[in-house]
Amino acid sequence: RLGLAQALLGDPAMLLLDEPTNGLDPEGIQEFYAILERLKNRDVAILTASHLLSEIEVRLDGLALLRDGQLREAAPIPELVARAGLPTRILISLKPNTELPQGLLGELGGQLSANGRPNSYEIRCTASRKLATLSRLLVHEAVIATLTVKEPGLEEAFHHLQQAGAADAAAPTATR
After folding, report:
1. Where would I find the beta strands (DSSP E) of 63-134?
2. d(CA 41, CA 82)
3. pLDDT digits 0-9 by tens, 107-116
4. Which neighbouring-strand residues pair with 63?
5. How far apart (Å, rounded) are the C-alpha atoms in residues 167 and 118?
6. 3-state secondary structure 19-71
7. What percent of the chain has pLDDT over 70?
């Protein structure tokens, strides 16, 4: 809090913040982001370095990914997530003593969920197939206890892009 107060003393046009919420309680984090929102509305440029991707995802306009000191990606978050091409995950659990019609899960690409619970399944689909998949499932809503749609987010996209970057870095390059 003191560091932020010091940074704001000169009415800066830009702030550079490194892990700014480290050590703050939940109320302090909320207050901190409210201050940043007010600064953003005054056109203050805010650069934040953070490992808390799920915390900052909804607060960023764009993201720059660095690897080995080099800029690897820079784009708005929705673009980075879309570029990663990760599937939407649909998690369903069935009511006790019920089941879906024979073959439906296989047809939709479903499999037993990694959580190990009986009658709990995960279906992965592309964004373009999400609504059709949900429609096929909701016809059978009488047997579904819970249904959760998990869209890929910044954290998943980051790991995917980092792995892709590591593979690219390890690949041999041709020179002329």
Report:
1. 63-67, 70-75, 88-94, 110-112, 120-125
2. 27
3. 888 887 777 7
4. 75
5. 37
6. CCCCCCCHHHHHHHHHHHHHHHHCCCEEEEECCCHHHHHHHCCCEEEEECCEE
7. 93
